Amino acid sequence: MEILEAIQANLLSPAVLFFALGLVAALTRSDLRFPEPLYAGLTIYLLVAIGFKGGVAIAAAGIAKVWLPALAAMLLGTVIPLWVYPVLRVGGKLSPVDSAAIAAHYGSVSAVTFIAATNYLKAINQPFESYATAFLAVMESPSILVGVVLGKLATKPSGEKSGASLKTAMHEALFGRSIFLLVGSLAVGFLCGETGMRKVEPFFVAPFQGVLALFLLEMGVVAGRRLEDLKKVGPFLLGFGILVPVLNGALGVYLGRLTGLELGGATLLGVLSSSASYIAAPAAIRMSLPEANPTLYLTSSLAITFPFNITLGIPIYLEIARRLYA
Asked: Would you give the DSSP letter of residue 89?
């Protein structure tokens, strides 16, 4: 009954309801559409806000508390693509390059799923480590790099052109907009500390929930327009997009407990492990693995895993953590 009540509470949260509103808009063929500059602006705001607040939290907690779970987060970002890749190759019979592209997305993380999880934990008064944003910042790049390397190894090398492409992919993974903003604002928040937070709190804290609602409204529209692609990806990817996140989420919760996180913090590490990127990873994969089919990696991450996680997945990972900590 507890998990059913948790799922109900999550489904009735403003963030999830606005996402559902976007889905309805897409399914009813509404002309609702966000201008691209507005979408980019909302993305930048969310990334900078969560990065800055995470940096302030790390400064308050101290590096000694953060380094071990952050190292576990990096390990997860590296290992998840390595086990997901053979599952896609053998179970889904997908091409090597498509398998590598999808593996990169599932090893990477979704900032919006993380934000939805923190909102949910706050709503049910479940405490968690405020420096958990650091895990979000360190998990993105390793998975993209692993996915790109897997894709390049699976294709025939083409001399300097292949090397240049790999170099471009590494640059995008390390200095792409989302990672650059997350890590950069994390550093700014760490250097500023609580004193700096007090100066910008009216901008980064009070409007945050409203900006998130608008962003999820747009994500609902985008996901709704890709629901037709489910017919193309087939039942394997449909099952993959739900079962693999649950397994990754359970692994993340377990590692969170091993590294000394509280129940809420382990839940957030599980949420990050279960999520799939639809901002940083698609940009990097499009540049470095142009042979990969966007329908496969975008539909699985955005139209299957993302809706599952923000509606049902988050309460499930919390329940896994409760049972593990009990």
From this structure: I
Q: Which two tokens stand for residue 165?
A: 């492409």
| Enclosing domain of residue 218 | 2-325
pTM: 0.79
**Number of domains the chain contains:** 1
Query: Could you give the CA distance from residue 202 to residue 42 in angstroms, rounded to a whole number?
Result: 17
Helix-then-strand count for the chain, H and E:
16, 0
CATH of the domain at 83: 1.20.1530.20
pLDDT tens for the chain, 326 residues: list them.
556 666 666 677 787 788 889 889 988 989 888 888 888 888 888 888 888 888 888 888 888 888 999 999 999 999 999 999 999 999 989 999 999 999 999 998 888 899 889 989 998 899 999 888 888 878 877 888 888 888 877 765 555 455 555 666 666 666 767 678 878 888 999 999 889 999 999 998 889 888 888 888 887 888 788 777 777 778 899 999 999 999 999 999 999 999 999 999 999 999 999 999 877 787 677 767 778 887 788 888 888 898 899 889 999 999 999 999 98
